[in-house]
Structures are given as C-alpha cells and as structure tokens.
Write a structure and sequence with these properties.
By secondary structure, this protein is of the alpha+beta class. The protein has helices at 8-26, 40-47, 55-68, 95-98, 145-163; strands at 48-51, 73-77, 82-85, 88-90, 103-115, 118-131, 135-138. It has a single domain, classed as 2-Layer Sandwich (Alpha-D-Glucose-1,6-Bisphosphate, Chain A, domain 4). It is 39% helix and 29% strand. α1 runs antiparallel to α5 (145-163) and α3 (55-68) packs across α5. The longest helix has 19 residues, at 8-26.
C-alpha cells in the first residue's frame, strides 16, 4: 500500500478537480447537458474504460491509481473486483470560502475480465457539497457532463500511467 499522505502534485491536482466540480455543482448552465439528462448507456460509456492487461495487474493499477490521487481505500476485494474509496473533503479556498462551499468526492470502481488480456474498469464518482441546512447533498446529477467526464478521465489517465 502507498502512503495516504498527499504530495504537492496530488494537492494541486485535487484542487483543480474540486474547483471544477464546485463550479459544476453550483453554476449549472441551463444549456450545458447534465449527467441526469443522459441515458444509462451514455453514463456507462463515460464511466467505462478498457485496458490491455491481466486482471491482477489491472486491479493493482486501479488500487494504486486511487491512492496516487490521494484517496484512502476502504474496500479492495480482488475476488469481486470492487474497490471503494473513503470520502475526500477539499478544504475551501478562494471563491469556495466566499460562498462557504465544501465539496467531497469518492470513487466506486469495478474491475472485470473482458477477454484474454483485457480488463474493463467501470468507475463511478460520487460528489457532494455541504449545505448548512441539509448537510452533505449529492450534486452528481446536476453536474455538467464534461466535469463528470473530466473527473473520471483523471482516474483513467492515472491508471494508464500505472500500467506503463
């Protein structure tokens, strides 16, 4: 297992992601498609990536990628292929302070064999924002498709780096 202590690069990357997610949660533009407007098949297409590698190597790469991104694994079951991270809360800065915005994210990932030397990774990113009245509120459905896609693409790119 890798250390869960964030490096400067992790902190910068997470700050960028959270700023993007914050903007998408709170500044939804009516002309921008949101995750809730997509079909299940379209969401699955965004959430799924295939990699040419063995199941064992793919599973390990996903676990290491999540940890590289600063997430703590709370479940990593090789038999079922399911990995789940704990919530990661971003401390507010800049505009987030002005609007009292706090955002937290977590991933749930399933790794499956998709053929000889091929694995399929399906990742779901949960995003919540804090609300003084209601506590943590899910904002994934109102998030723009592009911001949701960018968070998942970040994970997929770190997995690819791990597989090189």
């Amino acid at each position: 297992m890798l250390s869960s202590t964030p490096t400067k690069a992790r902190q910068v990357a997470m700050t960028r992601l959270v700023l993007a997610l914050s903007a998408s949660c709170f500044l939804v533009v009516t002309c921008a498609p949101t995750v809730s407007t997509l079909s299940r098949e379209q969401v699955a297409d965004i959430e799924t990536e295939s990699f040419r590698t063995s199941y064992e190597t793919g599973f390990s790469a996903v676990a290491e990628a999540l940890q590289d991104m600063g997430y703590c694994l709370i479940n990593a079951d090789r038999k079922t292929g399911i990995l789940t991270t704990d919530w990661q809360v971003k401390q507010p800065s800049g505009l987030e302070v002005a609007f009292a915005i706090r955002v937290r994210t977590r991933f749930s990932v399933t790794v499956t064999k998709a053929g000889d030397g091929l694995v399929r990774v399906r990742a779901r990113m949960m995003v919540q924002s804090s609300d003084p009245k209601f506590g943590w509120v899910d904002c994934r459905q109102n998030m723009s498709v592009e911001f949701y896609r960018s968070g998942l693409n970040w994970l997929f790119s770190v997995i690819k780096q791990r597989l090189q």
